[in-house]
Structures are given as C-alpha cells and as structure tokens.
Amino acid sequence: MNNFGWKREVLKQVVAYPLGQNLYLNITNRCTNNCLFCIRHTTAGIGYNLWLKQEPSPEEVLKAVQDPTIYREVVFCGYGEPLMRLEAVIKIAEQLKKKGGQVRINTNGQANLIYQKNVVPELKNLVDAISISLNAHSAERYLEICRPIYGEKAYQAVLDFTRSCVGQIPRVILSVVEWPGVDVEKCREIAFKLGTEFRLRKFSGMFKQYDQE
Ligand code: SF4
After folding, report:
1. Which residue has its alpha carbon closest to ligand 1 atom 3?
2. CA torsion sign, 169 to 48 to 59 to 34?
3. CB of 97 closer than 6 A to ligand 1?
C-alpha cells in the first residue's frame, strides 16, 4: 500500500466515482488555477485516487456511468477543470441528457478566457446546473488564493462567465471555500447581485461534504 492507502497494483484510473447520491466524473487533471486549497494538494483527497494516467475518451466516461438516472446528478468535477475539455464535456453531456440524466458542471469559470469566446451557448440545453468557483470577494484576493495562469484578468472573467450563464442554464451557483481573508458576506452579495445561488464550502484539510448539497 502507498501513503494514500491505495494498492499500486490496482491503480486503474478512476473516471467516475459515487459520493452521496451523485456520480462525479473525473475527465482531466489540468486546470488554469492553482488554488491554495486545491484538493490535489491534500494527502487525503476525497478517498479516491483521481490522478489520471491519461484523459478518458467520452466513450470511456459513458461506459463508466452506465445509467445516469440512478443518480441525483452526474457532475463533471474531477481533479482539475472539466471545461479544459469542452468538446468532451459536450459529447458526454449530450448522451447523458438523452438517457434522462441530470447534469452539473463544477467549474472555475474561466472557460470563456480559455477559448476566447462565449462557450455558454454550447452548453445550453445540455447542462441543468453549473457551479462556478468564485472563491474571493475581489480580484486581488482571487489572485492570491487561486493563482490563475491568466493573472489579474481571471476574476473579471469568472464574473463575466457567470453573467453569461444566468438565464441560459437553469441553475447557476457561485461557490466559495471558507478561507482566511475571504469576505464571505461580500461574496454572497456578489452572487445575489448576479442572480445566482450561493454556496459556502467548508475546508479542513479536505472537503467534509464534498459537493454534496
Ligand atoms: S480551480 Fe479547482 S481544480 Fe483548479 S486549482 Fe482550484 S480547486 Fe484545484
């Protein structure tokens, strides 16, 4: 056994993993942020080894899901930013919706910056909910905590992406990890002004209630 308690000989990559009533999809480990609290930096993780040897194809992911209707939601989540693989997300979500599943994306909200266009119309009708990590009440604080490769413009891009989602995707949630120096009430106010739901996530070495609402 290694330090994480996983047997090396069975290091088959985890593409989909159940937690609570949901199924979470792990399609990439890449991300445009490097958040101080990223679960990738914790030793405990969430109880699964989510490091991918190679990114799974849409077919592999759909095979891992089997029947999406047995879960409350199928959530693109991972150890990384799912919208780094926009085309794969679209292909997978199309099939999940055809089968009657509920689809959510957990994202850092930088997709429009990554692709230099508004990608929300491509997700419309394929996604029931989108949870966007706000994580700070100001651009300065975001830079310190999330350490985006895009630097100062990232925070505004997250806000703009959120605006693009409102009215296009049925549920839009802004989420914040409780972290020193983050003004949660200001974040809640930002969510209110943008017309989204708000969710505060507790962190203490690992997420106690990882993405379960
Ligand atoms: S956005 Fe998510 S995956 Fe990316 S570094 Fe931050 S916590 Fe980790």
Report:
1. 80
2. positive
3. no
User: How many residues appear in the chain?
Assistant: 213
**Number of folded domains in the chain?**
1
Would you say residue 185 lies in a domain?
Answer: yes
pTM for this predicted structure? 0.91
Query: What does the longest C-alpha to C-alpha distance in the chain come to?
Result: 50
Q: How far is CA 134 from the centre of its chain?
A: 11
How many CA atoms lie within 13 Å of 45's alpha carbon, on the beta-carbon side? 15
Indicate which CATH number applies to the domain containing 27. Answer: 3.20.20.70
Running DSSP on this structure, what letter comes out for residue 4? T
Question: Is the residue at 47 inside a domain?
Answer: yes
Q: What is the pLDDT of residues 143-186, one digit of tens each?
A: 999 999 999 999 999 999 999 999 999 999 999 999 999 999 99
CB 74 within 8 A of CB 15: no
Measure 45 CA to ligand 1 centroid, in angstroms: 13
Q: Is the CB of 154 under 6 A from ligand 1?
A: no
Decide whether any atom of ligand 1 lies within 6 Å of the 33 Cβ: yes
